Amino acid sequence: MVLTVLTDDQIKTILADLTADEFDGFRKVISTALHEYSTNTHNIEDGTYHQPERVSTENLKTGATTLYMPSVGPQGMGCKVVTLSSSKASQDPSKPSIQPTGAVTLLSPTGEPIGFLHAKTLTAFRTALSSTCLLARRTTVKTLTVFGTGLQAYWHVRLALLVRGTTIRHVNVINRRFSDDARDFMKQFYRVPANIKEREGWTETTFGILTPGYGEFKRLLREQTRDADVVYCCTPSTEELFEAEVLTSHEGRRKGRLIAAIGSYTPQMRELPEGLLLQATKHEKPHWHFHKHAPEGGVIVVDTLDGALKEAGEIISAGLQPTQLVELGELIMLRRMKDEEDAASELEKLDFSGTPSIKSAFSGSDGASVPEPRSSISKDSTKTSGSSSSKGPSMLRRSSSQRSADKRKKEDALVRWLKDGTVIYKSVGLGLMDLSVGMHMIQLAKEKGIGTRIEGF
């Protein structure tokens, strides 16, 4: 068995000149893993997929938190150990600033060690990769607003430029202070070679940074958050990054946005305001009004249901229930659609019986609720089985046609929400991401001749 060792610099080298095809390879790997995990495509009882809860320890001397994240999949097993400054320590000048660092150990299905990868860049990349699965389907992506200047923030912006660089015009960066890290964050984008910028289509994209030291900070914070088509929250904050009213007011709801919060990962942390989550999961009765709002799905998208309920401070604080959450893996197949016609056949396979709140995404354009496909089919089958002789072929054809029309209306509403509506994604991370992306990283490193390979380990 061959053991592949990849340093952080080697992983950076692999990702620095990532082509669209290479990115698509990573996207397919993580999409498949999340989809199969969430929809039980493989039998978990057989041990194909297993995601144990992560464990954490605290170092009182350094103020560091260490996370232990195991996972099992068809590719094999993996465990990541990563250390970073806690939210409290990051605000204490006497404590060292520790950016997420550690290692991922990968093993074959029979237990042989096959990979040992530095976790720093890998973690940021795989987190941004999952968020980008939702970004790729958005209709309008012109303005990005990102909170934070760490690696997570960098890779969220970097992958957005790779996927939608031809449409992105402005990138707004909001940080609590203009530090050396913030300065280096901005420099990284200017250092990207001109040929790569041209290939990805963002040579004319402008970048700006906003900090509280600026006199108009509060006003610009509101404007840059409200004007954004995509908002990335990438900070270990214990306070809401902006007021809920910025996006829950009638003016704020006129525009659909993708909002991804990936920086907070404990019950004490929170980036998104509680009011925003409550608004997004509210089920309003159909009524006439003069305010035009973007489509809302009635749910928050999460990477892992169990993890979000136990570790996501925003979810816990808002008191959201499992029926108000839907896993990204249940929607990830929509990324594979090439056009609206594909949506019908793919969406028929989705089962939202465990998340009834998603029904709000299946409402008609006039706000009227559309019956569940399963219930409408069962009702029709009961009627036709008992009185088929009383209905002619034309009546049966009309009944079938109506069911198809109702189903298509629901499917169109879901696609419209994911493309144009307000979609909130909360990620706390799971080891399955490290396992799937890490395995693919080893394969790509071998193709590029990068890394250290130890025969007979």
Automatic annotation (TrEMBL):
* UniProt name for this protein: UbiD family decarboxylase
Annotated Gene Ontology cellular component terms: cytoplasm
Organism domain of life: Eukaryota
Q: Which organism is it from?
A: Colletotrichum phormii
Gene3D superfamilies tied to this protein: NAD(P)-binding Rossmann-like Domain, ornithine cyclodeaminase, domain 1
Pfam families per the UniProt record, alphabetical? OCD_Mu_crystall (PF02423)
UniProt lists the family membership as follows: Belongs to the ornithine cyclodeaminase/mu-crystallin family.
Q: Where is the composition biased (Low complexity)?
A: 374-401
